[in-house]
Amino acid sequence: MLFTRAAQKTAAPACEKFLETLVSRAERLPPVRVGVVHPCDPLSLEGALAARDRRLITPVLIGPKAKIEATARTIGASLDGLELVDAPHSHAAAEQAVDLVRRGKLAALMKGSLHTDEVMGAVVRKDEGLRTERRLSHVFVLDAPTYCKPLFVTDAAINIYPSLADKRDIVQNAIDLAHALGIERPKVAILSAVETVDAKILSTVDAAALCKMADRGQITGALLDGPLAFDNAISPEAAQSKNIVSLVAGDADILVAPDLEAGNILAKQLIFLAGAEDAGLVLGARVPIILTSRADDIRSRVVSCALAQIFAHRKLEAA
Fold it and tell me: In this structure, are residues 44 and 292 in contact, taking their beta carbons and an 8 Å threshold?
């Protein structure tokens, strides 16, 4: 599936929503086994069951059995036919989920009603976690009403002040997800406050270095440009007004934020002010991780499960 840019100001309202087509595509694939860690509140359990009902995942519920069953009664749901792994508390649930992945029993993980640090602490544990040679990072996938193709924003959840080496992995993780979703050669904009290299603004220096790393094959599968300010990255008019000659400027698929604060603010502005629909994954571990937020509704959780399912199948094909 190859996506090309259309004139976003006039064509965007008529465009078919990318995330909806993504769910439809995922429904045609076999569901994957997903460990749902500590689904002890209504949203966590409903999200997993809704994804199950759309044949995206086969949920394995991991946590205190009595609490999970009580939550199911609260929402009027049946757990018949579902595998339930009893764990006494949230920390133990995270540890058991990671162990199941290590033993090849799960293809993805999904955060339930526990703190992000509990899940990620078990994932990144040095000897018994799910680390790979790649730095972990989070990628938002957004359907923004005024942008006529999907927009990826990274990293807005994991790496607070990433180094240049971290950013290399953050970029490659996002590129790998774009490939899995059918974007053959994504355009990556490395964001900063300005579009010129300024030694006083470290993010501009990092952006220039990342582009040269792509030239040297240290980052593959995409077109990179940066530094670019946000307007130059997504608006061809803004890019033209600054005389920026680039295949990426004004047409970006992936926006790479300079740090977590900038990425988090950008993604949430697009969601809450611009009405963007969102989903997201943590990548770089042995399996994709659906890192839900308390603010995520059922729809967002279902679409994130579709992302995880498609990405998991892509990994299996590449193995």
Answer: yes
Residues facing residue 36 across a β-bridge: 61, 110
Residue 55: which region, alpha, beta or left (left: phi > 0; alpha: psi -120 to 50)? left
Quote the strand ranges of 91-200, DSSP E: 108-111, 137-143, 151-154, 187-191
Q: Measured between alpha carbons, how far is 213 from 88 in angstroms, rounded to an integer?
A: 47
Residues with Cβ within 8 Å of residue 132, at least 6 apart in sequence: 284, 285, 286
For residue 7, the Cα-to-chain-centroid distance in whole angstroms is: 26
C-alpha span between 42 and 119 (Å, rounded)? 19
Provide mean pLDDT across the span 197-222: 98
Whether the CB-CB separation of 36 and 100 falls below 8 Å is answered with: no
- Round to whole Å and give the CA distance between 296 and 278: 9
The CATH class of the 31-131+285-319 domain is alpha beta
Look at residue 195 in the predicted model and tell me its pLDDT. Answer: 95
C-alpha to C-alpha distance for 68 and 116, rounded to whole angstroms: 19
Could you tell me which of 135, 145, 166 has the C-alpha nearest to residue 256? 166
Helix, strand, coil percentages (3-state) for the chain, rounded to 5, are: 45, 20, 40
Residue 2 has pLDDT above 70, yes or no: no
Residues of the chain with CATH 3.40.718.10: 1-17+134-283
What are the tens digits of pLDDT across the range 249-265? Answer: 999 999 999 999 999 99
269-315 pLDDT, tens digit each = 999 999 999 999 999 999 999 998 877 899 999 999 999 999 999 88
Token pair for 216: 């040297």
- Please name the residues in contact with 234: beta carbons below 8 A apart, sequence gap of 6 or more: 147, 151, 189, 250, 252, 255
Name the fold adopted by 1-17+134-283. Isopropylmalate Dehydrogenase (3.40.718)
Cis peptide before 231 (omega within 30 of 0): no
